[in-house]
Specification:
Chains A, B: This is rRNA methylase. Two copies of one chain form a homodimer. By secondary structure, the first copy, chain A, is an alpha/beta fold. The first copy, chain A, is built from nine helices and twelve strands. In chain A, helix 5 packs parallel to helix 6 and helix 5 runs parallel beside helix 9. At the A-B interface, helix 5 and helix 9 of A face helix 5 and helix 9 of B.
Chain lengths: 255, 255
C-alpha cells in the first residue's frame, strides 16, 4: 500500500479535481467519501478504482477484496480532497455509470419526473426519498445539475446505487406514460387541481415536481392528466420541494 | 439617506459581524436579507432598526414608512455582508425577539417537539413545514443551533414571523402535554411502534422528531405514549429528518 503524504502529489491533485464536472468527465470517474456511502457501494457490487484511507486498519472491517488500488493518506490530504468540514478519513474513486437514456418498454409502478429542480441538496434528498418510497425510477428533466456533483452524492446517501436515474426530455416521457395509460400527475395549484389525498393509490403513476422558484413549465403542465396540490392550513406560502415531494409520494404509494 | 461605499465603514463591519451569535447577542439584533423575508417582516408588523439597499428606488415598492435608519450601499458591500452567493441587494436589521420560555396553560392543536435537531438547514425547513401544516408551536429541545443563525433564517423563509418558537426542556413539555391528556407521539422504530397512518387525525397532539444521526434520546423515548414509524417499501435506510417530519405532520393534521 502506497503512503501519500503531500497535497502536491499528482494523485492527490487528481482526486481534488474530481470535485469538478470537467475532471469527472475527463477521467470517467467520481469520488465518494464516508463509511455509509462506501458500504452502500460495496453492497451494490460497484467496481472500485481507488480507495484512500487515513487508518489502514479501518479496511479490516470492510471485508475488502476488490481489485482497487489502495492508498494510505494523511489527515491533511483527507481534509484537502474532502467536500465536507469533518471528513471521515475514507474515500473511494468509482467509474461513472452510464445514465439510462432510453425509456423502458414497460412503465409500471411509481415514477418521479423532475422538471428543472436545481439545488443539488434538494435533488439528492428527493432521490433518497423516492428510493425510500419504493419509486421505480427518477427522470431528471431540464436540470443542469450533474448527478455526480459532490453535494448531490452526499445528500442521496447511496440511493443512486439502488434506484434507476434517467436523463431525459419530459415531453417524450409523458407521451410514453400516456401511451401506456399511466396517469401523469402535475403538482401546481390551478383551477382544476385536486388535493393530493383525493386520487387514491394508483398501481402505476408518474408524478412531476417543478423547479424551486418557478414550479413546472407551462409546456409540461399542459400535458398532465391531473394537477395535485397540498392544502396548507398554516401561514407559510409554500413548502420546500423535497418536503412536498415526500408528502405526495408517500401518500400516493400503497403502504 | 447616508450612502456607504467602504467595507471598512464601522456600520458595515457591525453588519458583517451579525453573522456571529456573539455579536447578535451583544447588539440584541439580527440581519435578514432578500425581498421575501423583508416583505414577511413588514407584513408581520416587525420593528426595523436599519434598512440597507443597493438601489433606493427599490424602496418605493415597499410602502416604506418605518422609523428605521436607511442606508444606500454599494453592490460590493452587499456582497460583503451577505450570507449568500447572489445577494438581492436589500437587507434589514431587526431586534431579537425574546423566545417564548413558559409553557402555555392551554396546549391545544398540533405541536412539534424537536429533540436535538442540529443542522440549521433541516431545522429551518422543519419550522417552515410546521408553519405550512398549521402546527401551533415548535419546541426546540437540546439544540445548540441559535434561532438567528443566517442559514436557519434563510431556510425558515419567514416562518419565524408566523409560528411560536420555544426553547425548552422536552421532559417538562411532555409532562405538561400528559397532564392535559394530549397524546405524545415519538418517531422511532421499536417493537411497539405503529405506522404513522394508523393513529388518525387527533385534534390535539405532540409529535417528537429526533436528531439526524442518533434519533430520539432514550430518556425522551421512554415518556412517549406511542411511537410512530414510516413504512418504507424501497431500499433507502432512512429519510431526511425534514422530509420525515413533513410526511408525518401532514398525515396527522385534519385536512
Amino acid at each position: 500500500m502506497e503512503f501519500l503524504t503531500s497535497n502536491q502529489n499528482q494523485r492527490v491533485k487528481d482526486w481534488k479535481k474530481l470535485q469538478t464536472k470537467k475532471q469527472r468527465t475527463r477521467s470517467n470517474a467520481y469520488i465518494i467519501e464516508g463509511w455509509h456511502l462506501i458500504d452502500e457501494a460495496f453492497k451494490s457490487g460497484k467496481q472500485f478504482k481507488e480507495v484512500m484511507v487515513v487508518d489502514p486498519e479501518d479496511l479490516d472491517d470492510l471485508n475488502f477484496n476488490s481489485e482497487a488500488e489502495v492508498f494510505q493518506i494523511t489527515p491533511e490530504i483527507a481534509a484537502h480532497i474532502s467536500d465536507t468540514k469533518t471528513p471521515q478519513g475514507i474515500f473511494a474513486v468509482l467509474p461513472l455509470d452510464s445514465y439510462h437514456e432510453d425509456i423502458p418498454d414497460q412503465l409500471t409502478g411509481g415514477w418521479l419526473l423532475l422538471d428543472n429542480v436545481q439545488d443539488p441538496g434538494n435533488l439528492g434528498t428527493i432521490i433518497r426519498t423516492a428510493d425510500a418510497a419504493g419509486i421505480n425510477g427518477v427522470v431528471l428533466g431540464g436540470s443542469s445539475v450533474d448527478i455526480y456533483n459532490p453535494k448531490l452524492i452526499r445528500s442521496m446517501q447511496g440511493s443512486h446505487f439502488h434506484i434507476s436515474l434517467y436523463n431525459g426530455n419530459l415531453n417524450e416521457w409523458i407521451l410514453a406514460f400516456k401511451q401506456q395509460q399511466v396517469p401523469v400527475f402535475g403538482t401546481e395549484l390551478n383551477e382544476e387541481a385536486k388535493s393530493y389525498k383525493e386520487v387514491g393509490h394508483p398501481e402505476d403513476f408518474a408524478l412531476i415536481m417543478g423547479n424551486e422558484g418557478n414550479g413546472m413549465s407551462d409546456e409540461t403542465l399542459a400535458q398532465t392528466d391531473q394537477n395535485l396540490y397540498i392544502p396548507m392550513k398554516g401561514n407559510a406560502e409554500s413548502l420546500n420541494v423535497a418536503v412536498a415531494a415526500g408528502i405526495v409520494m408517500f401518500q400516493l404509494i400503497k403502504s
